């Protein structure tokens, strides 16, 4: 059976605090372990109402509070740090918690340039997005988003510049290979006759992953190096099938003997469809702020979202809304099974955004029960 995992953005709710969000993350991780989820990943986001800017620190907190579930990053952005620091941080966690630590290696290079390009063009933020999206075997596969009508602030480009080192982004493949060599104890930079020894971390069972949104650099590199790969359906749904195919076609045995594919999905289950749809209103202003480059805002109370705003934002972000699996447990699980069948996923990694923490816990419990 396809495994289930959790991707936690560590969202801060409207009226809440970062400390409360971190406490909620620990509670959700414990519950996910109890519900039978295989892994618990933490996203990396900066300058937003998400308490996940330091995933290694949050992972240490979660690992100490749990006992069996795998914990990792989904994903550390290599364009913002040197490979040795990533290997040291996550290698230390692997020494402390053997058999339980993943590190997702993200690329993200060029994203700031995309936003800057969009800012130089005239936007049309209130033009309704396309609402008729292709469907293949029960899975919606929208066309890629056009940033021009959504970005109305230089905030995102500036924030990315603040957290990224000056100059050109380092070569992604070189960084990934460096992390692998550091973990294996074989990292020998030019000019040295013997390896630099990673302390602690060398020789551990730290498992690197690669995450990607397209059938390009990341998917092909994961395949060539024999690494596990996660395709982001919840961020780039229209490319997911091609991305999965590119990974498998490029795969040669390396860290793994066979390909292992995880696919992410944005989900929200409640006892009834009506309950789920009411809770899902929180997502609309939240995703609108993200898409406009303002960054994630505190997750609003769904009761604060008017009917008029719900209609307007649903149209504007139709691709994100229609690829979010919202409903009773049977409906959500049915859509997840269709996604797993279409992509051949070995694992589905689920992210859920709600105003109330208890609703997020309930969603993961209901899905786990229905999945079994």
Automatic annotation (TrEMBL):
Luciferase-like domain residues: 3-111, 194-344
InterPro entries named in the record: Bact_Lucif_Oxidored, Luciferase-like_dom, Luciferase-like_sf
Transmembrane segments: none
CDD domains, A to Z: Flavin_utilizing_monoxygenases (cd00347)
Highest taxon above the source species: Bacteria
SUPFAM superfamilies in UniProt: Bacterial luciferase-like
Record's protein name: LLM class flavin-dependent oxidoreductase
Species assigned in the record: Gordonia liuliyuniae
């Amino acid at each position: 059976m396809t495994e289930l995992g959790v991707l936690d953005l560590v969202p801060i709710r409207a009226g809440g605090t970062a400390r409360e969000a971190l406490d909620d993350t620990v509670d959700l991780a414990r519950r996910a372990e109890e519900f039978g989820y295989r892994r618990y990943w933490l996203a990396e986001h900066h300058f937003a109402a998400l308490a996940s800017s330091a995933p290694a620190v949050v992972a240490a907190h979660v690992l100490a509070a749990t006992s069996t579930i795998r914990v990792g990053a989904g994903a550390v952005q290599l364009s913002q740090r040197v490979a040795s620091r990533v290997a040291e941080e996550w290698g230390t966690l692997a020494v402390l918690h053997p058999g339980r630590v993943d590190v997702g290696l993200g690329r993200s290079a060029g994203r700031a340039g995309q936003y800057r390009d969009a800012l130089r063009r005239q936007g049309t933020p209130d033009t309704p997005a396309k609402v008729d999206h292709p469907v293949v075997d029960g899975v919606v596969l929208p066309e890629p988003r056009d940033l021009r009508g959504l970005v109305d602030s230089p905030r995102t480009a500036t924030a990315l510049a603040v957290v990224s080192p000056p100059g050109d982004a380092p070569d992604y493949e070189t960084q990934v290979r460096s992390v692998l060599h550091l973990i294996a104890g074989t990292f020998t930079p030019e000019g040295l006759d013997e390896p630099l020894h990673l302390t602690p971390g060398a020789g551990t069972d730290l498992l690197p992953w690669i995450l990607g949104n397209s059938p390009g650099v990341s998917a092909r590199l994961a395949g060539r190096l024999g690494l596990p790969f996660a395709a982001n359906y919840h961020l780039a749904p229209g490319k997911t099938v091609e991305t999965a195919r590119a990974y498998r076609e490029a795969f040669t045995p390396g860290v793994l003997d066979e390909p292992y594919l995880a696919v992410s999905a944005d989900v929200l289950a409640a006892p009834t469809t009506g309950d789920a749809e009411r809770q899902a209103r929180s997502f609309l202003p939240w995703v609108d702020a993200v898409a406009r480059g303002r960054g994630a805002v505190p997750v609003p109370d769904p009761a604060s979202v008017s009917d008029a705003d719900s209609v307007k934002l649903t149209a504007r972000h139709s691709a994100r809304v229609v690829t979010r699996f919202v409903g009773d447990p049977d409906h959500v699980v049915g859509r997840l099974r269709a996604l797993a069948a279409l992509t051949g996923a070995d694992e589905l990694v689920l992210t859920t955004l709600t105003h109330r923490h208890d609703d997020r816990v309930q969603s993961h419990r209901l899905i786990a029960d229905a999945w079994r």
